[in-house]
Amino acid sequence: MQSQDVAQRHSSAAADPVVDVERAEAARVEHYPRLVRLAYLVLPPSLGRNRRVLTAHALTQRALPRKRARASVIPSQSTGRESDPGYAYVRLRVLRTALEAGLPVLRRRAWPKRSQLPPLLPQVWGLRLFPRSGGADELALDQRLSALSAPARAAYVLRGLERLADADVCTVLTAAGVGDAQAALAEADTLAAQYALLDSPEFDPCSLQARPTDLMRRRQHLKAALAATAAIAVCGALLALPGDGWGPDGAAAPVYAQNPSARAALDPARLTKVPAAAWQSATRTDFSVWPARGDLVDDSALLRRALAVWARPGETVRVSVTPGTPSGGPAGPPQLLYAGTVDRARVVILHDGLRIARYAEPMDGTAGAALDFARTDGASRGEASAVVLARTDGNVRYLMAPWVKKAAERDLVKPGSGTMELTLTDGIASPLASPVTRSGACTSWNALEVTDGSGTRLLTDLGELVPARLTSGRPGSVRDATGAQARRTWAPFACSLANARGQGVRSVNAWAYARQPLPDGSGAAAWVCTRAETWRGGGERVLAQFQSPGGTYGAVVAKADGDPACGAKDPHVLAGVLWKSAGGEWYLLAASSRDTESVSATGGVNGSAEGHLLTVRTKQGAHAELKATLESGRSISGLR
After folding, report:
1. Beta-carbon contacts of residue 591 (< 8 Å; ≥ 6 apart)
2. Which phi and psi (to 5°) does residue 268 adopt?
3. Which range is least confidently modeled, 12-16, 84-88, 157-161?
4. Please, is 197 exposed, middle or buried when counting C-beta atoms within 10 Å of its C-beta (0-12, 13-18, 19+)?
5. More confident residue, 506 or 130
6. For the chain, how big is the Rg over CA atoms in Å?
7. Of 107, 221, 270, 624, which has the maximum CB count within 10 A?
8. Which of 115-124, 151-160, 189-198 has the lowest mean pLDDT?
9. How confident is the model at residue 220 (pLDDT cuts 50, 70, 90)?
10. 618-623 mean pLDDT
11. What is the C-alpha separation between 542 and 529, in angstroms, rounded?
């Protein structure tokens, strides 16, 4: 449970306060992800993403003072982390060492600084680590940042990530050892202010993907070492035996590079290309009956590159994988869904029955290529209606299923507004503003409305290759959220869809399970439970939400991950909230589904009521344990 009152916090920072080790450590622990992100953005991209990740963590972990020190740089903001001298001190240490790491190794010094050398700790052997890939906007920003000097990158990051004013940026840069902070600010001004992209997973060194290092080179080094030992002589004698010999692999096929099945999977001539009209007579309507489309379906060189990168992504390839999705190469020749030019890139979309794989490369080469995976096994007609082709300038462009006759944009927050029709050209829809890339307060949520011969469906972009299907209704009897009542149910809670971003979500259902009269007679509040189902069949996210009468948006009051509540297997839910009346009285409001016999609260609040609603007068900040007894006699506890 949580209170709906949001108190305003005010504090003031003293000049040059003393920071001890304990205070700095507390700030580092609390803000570790932000500090590592800052270091990663300031470090020179020439280090490579794997070393940038490890160096960013190393610099942040070494940022503690050895004894009490003065935090000489305190930004002008007076709330949150900015008023914490410990945070300001640790941030300055991280920034200073990140700037030093970008200097030439031998610059007027006999020995390089520690930050200029590869980190000793943390260290990972046999794997390369790099953040999850973002879209084309993040890639373009990363390339533009790499062209800046280190002080200019630091100025841009302090402005965008830390939200510092220019005067504070100059103060921090000067304290970090930058000779001309004004020049750094002027150079940072040459970049467009795309500060919201700095919060992208593209620049998050704490959410990582792992890939092996150069396996062939490791094998060669191992063979060279073994060549100096007596074991090589023994192995040579065994290999010289007549016949095929008896190796440890027995009857296994040759290694990957010589396996005929593996090579066939990477042969563009063997790609499956479904005829354009096959879906009309097929017994199933999913990705397996999509035809191959695009102006480059016959470009064998492009298709070969896409297949090769899928099987063996290089160090410079940006790979993103939704949770629960395997990222290995295809087991056999996959199906080609699309190969063509989209915006400023060449895009190939492939399907192997389990996954959708999207390969994209710039028009002027292969540097900066990206590979994205999404799990799609068991997709229904509605779930196989669209695939993301590209993301550019905050917009998303979809490739539509061949059975889609009409596509339109609809704002979920405004249920009474109409739709804006999208143009379909060879199955490609005109750009749609993506809700997940927007920065600032959520005042709208654009969804994709598709119409085919079997009806209309509503889909939403959650930052993945396949948009999530939106439904409404009681679990077990949900329907597509396209009717007027379903849209009204979703409207106050549409912005909560941001909680499901990047989680491998297949569908999200909104269930209006209760309406509760308020104790002051001001109206009735709405209780809605949203449940995000995933493609992998685990990690479902359940949110219990509360909307006061007359309120534009709902509030999340309880949530759970991997819980059966609000689902087909357990169509029940219990949640509560502390609510303050216009007269200043505080109440505990709780609601369960309608098949509830009684609801009770214990702990900091005591009370019970027959039926599925509970109202108890209490005090601000009170905590309670909720329990409900269903008509079947089963007990359920409240979501937290």
Report:
1. 513, 514, 516, 527, 574, 575, 576, 599, 612, 613, 614
2. -60, -25
3. 12-16
4. buried
5. 506
6. 28
7. 624
8. 115-124
9. low
10. 92
11. 7
Alpha-carbon dihedral sign for residues 173, 175, 177, 182: positive
Segment (H or E) for 136: helix 136-146
Average pLDDT, stretch 304-316?
89
Q: What is the rounded CA–CA span in Å between residue 17 and residue 2?
A: 34
Please answer whether residues 347 and 336 qualify as being in contact, where contact means their C-beta atoms are separated by less than 8 angstroms. Answer: no
State the pLDDT at residue 216: 55
127 vs 381, which has greater pLDDT? 381
Please give the sequence-ordered ranges of beta strands (E in DSSP) within 149-295, or none if there are none. Answer: 208-212
Tokens representing 126?
């046999």
> Is there a contact between 575 and 544 (Cβ–Cβ < 8 Å)?
yes
Q: Would the pLDDT of 355 be above 60?
A: yes
Cα distance between residue 357 and residue 377, in whole Å? 13
Place of tokens 């010094």: 109
* Strands in 376-504 per DSSP E: 386-392, 395-400, 404-411, 420-422, 424-425, 428-429, 432-433, 446-452, 455-460, 468-472, 479-480
Task: Write the DSSP string, 349-407.
Answer: EEE-SSEEEEEEEETT-STT-EEEEEE-TT--TTTTSEEEEEEETTEEEEEEPTTEEEE
Work out the pLDDT band at 222, boundaries 50, 70, 90. Answer: low
State the chain's mean pLDDT as an integer: 85
Helix axis angle, 49-61 to 85-101, nearest 10°: 140
The two three-digit tokens of residue 157, written as one number:
């990051």
For the chain, how many residues are written? 640
Q: Would you say residue 426 has pLDDT above 90?
A: yes
Whether residue 227 is predicted with pLDDT greater than 80 in this model: the reply is: no
Q: Taking the alpha carbons of 149, 130, 390, 303 in that order, is the dihedral positive or negative?
A: positive
DSSP for 508-572, please give it: EEEEEEEEEE-TTSS-EEEEEEEEEEETTS---EEEEEEE-TT-SS-EEEEEEES--BTBTTB--
Burial 337-361 (b: 16+ CB within 10 A, else e): bbbbebbebbbbbbbbebbbbbbbb
Question: Pairing mode, if any, of strands 428-429 and 127-131?
Answer: unpaired
